[in-house]
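User: For my dataset I need records formatted as: sequence, then structure tokens, nothing else. Please produce one.
Assistant:
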Amino acid sequence: MSAMPDYAQLATEISANLSPLRKGQPAVMKAFHELGRAALVTGALEEKTKELMALAIGIAVRCDGCIAFHMRTLVKLGATRAEVEETLALSVYMGGGPSAMYAANAMAAYEQFSAAAAQAKPA
């Protein structure tokens, strides 16, 4: 069994690894970025709900990078542990055993980002 990823480090590494792709394929990467921004605009659903949905999909497709980026954003948006846990429960329901394994990873990511956010808050 592989070690649990450090999700903050993973997000940093993926961002760095995307840099050459952004330079080599700027139109595609800009379009992808704009697609994400457009999808997250508050409409009938607010941004946090959309990020919870993105987390659930990331778990279902077994994407550690997705867990890292969406969990980091969810912590910044003030997602509660209960909201995250209900999202993970829905992911397990929809994805079965493999989603349960990634839901466990997502919980670890929540803990990592929440601890870092708590340390960064001024006293």
